[in-house]
Amino acid sequence: MIKDLKYDEKGLIPAIIQDYGDGTVLMMAYMNADSLKKTIETGFTHFWSRSRQKFWMKGETSGHTQEVKEVLVDCDNDTLLVKVLQRGPGACHTGHRSCFYRNIEGKAVASMAFSAADVYGKK
Q: Does the predicted model carry a pTM greater than 0.90?
């Protein structure tokens, strides 16, 4: 199946990360063929950072890893849905459980799950 995936012109495919237990959409990141392969091999999410131009494992800094339970492919073969057990209080680097914590007006609709300053040293 991996050979049938449709990556974009940069060799990337969007991956929606969803909590396996309650269905919360935790985040969206990009994978390439190598990060997808590493995700499948290790059982933990790995991505390609477009800004840093390098591979990263979710939780390598925070310890908030994502154990992969299932990987699904959409009908067009151009988006992944990765169902995970989120280890640690949250997936978002801002300190929220989900990266989708604001409404369209920019108002926070979810509370903080952990201190980003404590975890990442950010102020």
A: yes
